[in-house]
């Protein structure tokens, strides 16, 4: 069955970096786009990036453009979110999600990122 499992979250100081991973199973990265979302304390869920399965093009939200980078490793069926220059307001639960062509259909359980000194 389709599963998405995030990892790589943790506690990091402001200005630091983390790399999140999203391990996909039950499908290949050539079949569906993968997006990253986050939800911070008392905040609405926010879309951060999306990587297309067709041509590999990537969308970034303005809030993370220039600081976050999405990439994929097709052989390992893993999508990454490299996060640099982290700020306290980046503290959130980070999710990856699949778009199989009919909307967002599978979500991971999330990995917690805390940015604090």
Which keywords apply here?
mainly beta; 4-stranded antiparallel sheet; 117 residues
Give an account of the 3D structure.
By secondary structure, the protein is an all-beta fold. It is built from no helices and 11 strands. It has strands spanning 3-7, 10-12, 18-25, 33-39, 46-51, 58-60, 68-73, 78-83, 92-99, 104-107, 111-115. Strands 2, 4, 5, 6, 9, 10 and 11 form a 7-stranded mixed beta sheet that branches. Strands 1-3-8-7 form a 4-stranded antiparallel beta sheet, with no helix packed on it. The protein is globular and about 40 Å long. The relative contact order is 0.32.
Q: Helical content, roughly?
A: under 10%
Number of beta strands: 11
The parts where pLDDT drops under 50 for at least 5 residues are: none
Shape category: globular
Distance between the termini: 40 Å
Spell the H/E element sequence: EEEEEEEEEEE
Radius of gyration: 13 Å
As a percent range, the share of strand residues is over 45%
What's the pLDDT, averaged over the residues? 94
The description of the largest β-sheet is:
7 strands, mixed
Number of helices: 0
Structural class: mainly beta
Layout of helices and strands:
Elements: E1 3-7, E2 10-12, E3 18-25, E4 33-39, E5 46-51, E6 58-60, E7 68-73, E8 78-83, E9 92-99, E10 104-107, E11 111-115
Parallel strand pairs: 2-11
Antiparallel strand pairs: 1-3, 3-8, 4-5, 4-9, 5-6, 7-8, 9-10, 9-11
Put the structure in a nutshell.
The protein has 117 residues and is an all-beta fold. It has strands at 3-7, 10-12, 18-25, 33-39, 46-51, 58-60, 68-73, 78-83, 92-99, 104-107, 111-115.
